[in-house]
């Protein structure tokens, strides 16, 4: 049976003092229904909403059921909850246990802090821990991005969201997906702890541990990290990325793959400038280009790769070394243009091809860009060719310039022009030494067979002497400018680094794994149960559900079963509630009531 509970309208709140731990309230209409709601007050809005306050939290709503003795209330209709000036939450329904400071909200829940907002279907709020939790799908809006996940946890003190299942961050410039992520709402920093991708029109970043500033658009990635560009892949132990400048750098065990030209650069520090389509790499840097399944390796202190894919240019500086299965070389610097197939070796260059050593002021190698085989070579100024003879001497050819021709990557012919000289150990068909030939001429053509000199043609102004071996002293057996560098020759890929000091990898500051968190509903530190017995929730509702562990944020958020339409019954129609004795009716009486159709419905407790 319904009866009016007469009170004088609160000009202020109920006495404080002993009520400090009790929930205080203000209501324009108050009803008691002992038959259906024993021990409870039914509170209703007339002009001003029902207002609750408890230890720094305030709640407004259109209607409420307040169990004063149990320090618990349920709020219905246009619910608004505020904690200081940091948290505001609105919903269709909310309940609050003053003894445990545990709140639950459902129905179009919207929570806002100074930097972000959260929209979800149901939300749990533990004021003791200062944590909020949702598991029915949530959307978080930041100043720069939108985050979506099935499950999320918010730490008010740290202003941090934690997502233990897949989360998707959508920004106008990229989409970030991660299986585990922490997001700080005060600065927009995101920490990724599982397989994660950041995808944009220009690049795709993958890592299994990393950091990204969603507002500053910079990132740092430290586990199984890579950045895929349109025509390059950058990998390394540590990657830095700046979307604003289209810049990336990498440290330790770096690999830069050119996916179009099938080449790879390795080293221990690299910088990539996407807009300039360039790469800078150092610290045991080596470029590897596959040609007819025979890789060419170029090592230098510093390597730079520039240009569009159809016109790549490789530059190497300081201590350049080149290696191929049948050829190797050294120089101070190198310039390779892939479109023309031209390789320029500059600064004390030396090249070994089969048994031949070639030196000069500059050496040019030309590849056939279609077959990717060596086509020809040119040696400019002070060209010198040396081939060790079987008895220990050296066959020598020199001139101002040298031109060579390759077939099947093997040197077949060499032409020397201008002021040429030769010193050649001549043998008969049985390989017996006939003598040592020293000749001057205007030009020379040398032919090779089975990697040995098979014939020498002297052209124009020939002046030569064949000396018996015994008649030519040792000191006369080298031409002016002779410089045998055979001890520098490279015989394997490992020899590229033979003179380099051991490299000590840079110490990388990692991103520590997050601490294992206790269950949000853990109640071991409290004396009593988390929930009031009048709560819409039951203890089983607080247990982890199978859906909570499914990392699938891409699906549409499903309504939480705790928002039960079938449980709704009606409160007493508030337009039947009269003002308390001693109060004068308002002139706009039609505004003093809420129609039964608009009354918030609940299930009888």
From TrEMBL:
- Looking at the record, which segments are called Disordered? 502-605
Q: Does the keyword Cell membrane apply?
A: no
Q: Which UniProt keywords apply?
A: Cell outer membrane, Membrane
- The question of whether Membrane is a record keyword is answered with yes
Q: Where is the composition biased (Basic and acidic residues)?
A: 533-547
For bias type Low complexity, the affected ranges are 578-591
Q: Where is the Organic solvent tolerance-like N-terminal domain?
A: 45-178
The record ties this protein, via InterPro entries, to: LptD (IPR050218), OstA-like_N (IPR005653)
This chain's protein is named: OstA-like protein
Please name the source species: Salinimicrobium tongyeongense
């Amino acid at each position: 049976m319904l009866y009016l509970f007469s009170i004088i309208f609160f000009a202020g709140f109920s006495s404080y003092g002993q009520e400090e731990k009790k929930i205080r309230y203000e209501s324009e209409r108050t009803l008691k229904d002992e038959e259906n709601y024993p021990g409870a007050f039914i509170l209703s809005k007339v002009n001003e909403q029902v207002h609750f306050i408890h230890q720094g939290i305030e709640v407004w709503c259109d209607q409420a059921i307040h169990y004063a003795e149990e320090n618990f209330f349920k709020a219905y209709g246009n619910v608004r909850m505020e904690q200081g000036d940091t948290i505001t939450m609105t919903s269709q329904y909310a309940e609050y246990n003053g003894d445990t400071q545990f709140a639950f909200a459902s129905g179009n829940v919207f929570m806002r802090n100074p930097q972000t907002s959260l929209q979800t279907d149901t939300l749990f709020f533990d004021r003791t821990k200062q944590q909020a939790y949702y598991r029915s799908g949530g959307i978080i809006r930041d100043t720069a991005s939108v985050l979506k996940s099935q499950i999320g946890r918010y730490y008010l003190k740290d202003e941090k969201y934690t997502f233990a299942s897949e989360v998707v961050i959508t920004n106008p410039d990229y989409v970030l997906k991660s299986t585990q992520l922490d997001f700080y709402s005060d600065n927009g920093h995101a920490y990724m702890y599982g397989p994660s991708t950041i995808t944009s029109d220009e690049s795709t970043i993958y890592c299994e541990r990393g950091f990204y500033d969603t507002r500053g658009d910079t990132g740092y990635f430290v586990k199984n990290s890579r950045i895929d560009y349109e025509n390059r892949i950058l990998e390394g132990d540590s990657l830095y990325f700046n979307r604003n400048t289209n810049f990336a750098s990498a440290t330790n065990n770096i690999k830069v793959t050119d996916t179009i030209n099938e080449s790879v650069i390795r080293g221990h520090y690299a910088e990539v400038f996407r807009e300039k389509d360039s790469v800078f790499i150092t610290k045991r840097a080596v470029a590897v280009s596959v040609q007819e399944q025979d890789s060419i390796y170029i090592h230098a202190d510093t390597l730079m790769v520039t240009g569009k894919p159809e016109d790549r240019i490789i530059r190497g500086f300081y201590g350049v070394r080149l290696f191929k299965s049948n050829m190797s070389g050294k120089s101070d610097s190198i310039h390779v243009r892939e479109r023309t197939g031209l390789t320029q070796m500059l600064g004390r260059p030396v090249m070994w091809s089969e048994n031949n050593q070639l030196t000069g002021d500059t050496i040019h190698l030309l590849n056939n860009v279609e077959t990717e085989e060596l086509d020809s070579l040119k040696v400019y100024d002070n060209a010198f060719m040396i081939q060790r003879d079987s008895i220990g001497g050296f066959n020598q050819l020199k001139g101002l310039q040298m031109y060579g021709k390759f077939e099947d990557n093997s040197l077949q012919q060499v032409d020397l022009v201008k002021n040429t000289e030769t010193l050649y150990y001549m043998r008969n068909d049985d390989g017996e030494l006939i003598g040592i030939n020293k000749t001057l001429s205007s030009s020379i053509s040398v032919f090779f067979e089975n990697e040995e000199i098979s014939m020498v043609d002297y052209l124009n102004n020939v002046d030569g002497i064949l000396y018996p071996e015994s008649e030519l002293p040792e000191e006369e057996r080298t031409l002016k400018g002779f410089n045998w560098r055979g001890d520098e020759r490279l015989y394997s890929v490992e020899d590229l680094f033979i003179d380099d000091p051991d490299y000590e990898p840079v110490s990388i500051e990692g991103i520590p794994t997050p601490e294992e968190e206790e269950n949000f509903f853990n109640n071991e530190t409290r004396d009593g149960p988390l929930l009031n017995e009048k709560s819409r929730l039951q203890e089983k509702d607080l247990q982890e559900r199978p859906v909570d562990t499914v990392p699938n944020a891409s699906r549409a958020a499903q309504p939480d079963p705790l928002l039960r339409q079938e449980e709704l019954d009606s409160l007493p129609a508030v337009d039947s509630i009269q003002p308390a004795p001693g109060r004068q009716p308002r002139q706009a009486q039609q505004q003093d009531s809420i129609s039964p159709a608009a009354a918030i419905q609940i299930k009888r407790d």
